[in-house]
Amino acid sequence: xxxxxxxxSTTQIIMLSFLVVILxxxxxxxxxxxxxxxxxVPYLDALFTATTATCVTGLVTLxxxxxxxxxxxxxxxxxxxxxxxxxxxxMSALMILLHKRMGIGDRLLLQDAFNLNSLSGIVRFVKRVMxxxxxxxxVGALLYMVVFVPxxxxxxxxxxxxxxxxxxCNAGIDIIADNSLCNYAADPIINAVTxxxxxxxGIGYIVWWDVLLVLRKTTWKNCRIFRNLTLHSKIAIVTxxxxxxxxxxxILLFEYANPLTIGNLSxxxxxxxxxxxxxxxxxAGFATIPQQDLTNATSILCxxxxxxxxxxxxxxxxxxxxxIAVLAVSALATIQNKNEVSLFDRNISKQAINKxxxxxxxxxxxxxxxxxxxxxxxxxxxxxxxYETVSxxxxxxxxRDLTPYLNAAGKVIIIGTMYLGRVGPISLALAxxxxxxxxxxxxxxxxxISVG
Length: 452
Prior knowledge:
The protein is mostly helical and 452 residues long. The protein has helices spanning 10-29, 43-54, 64-67, 70-85, 87-97, 104-113, 122-152, 155-168, 188-203, 205-217, 231-255, 267-280, 296-308, 321-335, 350-377, 382-393, 408-434; strands at 342-343, 346-347. The chain is 62% helix and 1% strand. Strands 1-2 form a two-stranded antiparallel sheet.
């Protein structure tokens, strides 16, 4: 008999790596040492917390600040950092740090983990990701200390570090208060620092290096920075700005006279709170106003913003900015009866369009199934349920105060949704990237159908 070597695809490795981290994290959080009280936290809540941290979602069944001990909070922060960067990235960084040689298999795994198009410079890319991440998180922590150290003393240092990493990884978990950042709704420093960390984490590492490369090559005689960016960066940046400021203006209009949210604030505070709400829906999950007090119009807008999420190859979730931009211009080209789909004077490949459709369809399927199942096991309001499931699917972490009241079945459904929301679209993207290896030589005949 010959022993067959068990081989896993990159997709399976990535999915299993997230699952292993979640299970290990849940076991650690279920230990008595992780609890701030005398009794250990029930395992289902520990599993829920480990999942929401690893999948950088932010939905919590128990208040983080009062439920977990310092040890438990450290475990949660490690899960957030691992989940934000990706398990494969962390493992590869350790190999580089220990001067271990990376084989072609390791490089291919990294390529798929970051959804990159080339193996060229993959090790250098990982180094830049790690250094860039820790540098931004460190600066963010120092800026937070300006507010938190005077308020909390030495404990403010730990709070600042935790909040900075959570914000950059778009996790939305904090150890400040039970009501997230609602106590700092009108604090310009907290709003600015948190928003900047969320945007930098969600814009994607590809955009980082592209912008830095262009800036290094830019001279006073040639200041066309935006023009020299890649198509990917242009789409990600423009779409992000449109969603943030467009969403902020609409939220301001919808909530302007709502006394439960921003109605009683000054004009400046109304603007900064509305802008922060638009930013945090991009899969960050921090709340400066109670989500259950939002008007129906704002809630529906936030559901759309959450579903779109951040940009590819970053710490954010959702179907991504580039995906929605490609779908929009593709639909417009079809309406205008154009043969080519283009943006910024560049044609979009058919493969990119098909991939955008597939990722969107899969995310929608996860969200719809979760909504249906959660509706079957709870009597909550339909809008609250949809808000919850979209938040879980897009790994956002905002809730209309439904998460703490989920029953056991509801918790299991949201756990599954967060996991699939984190690894599902990634896995589909990898499968689509590798599908070129399995093309049929013989093609079926084409026949016209009626659509729409």
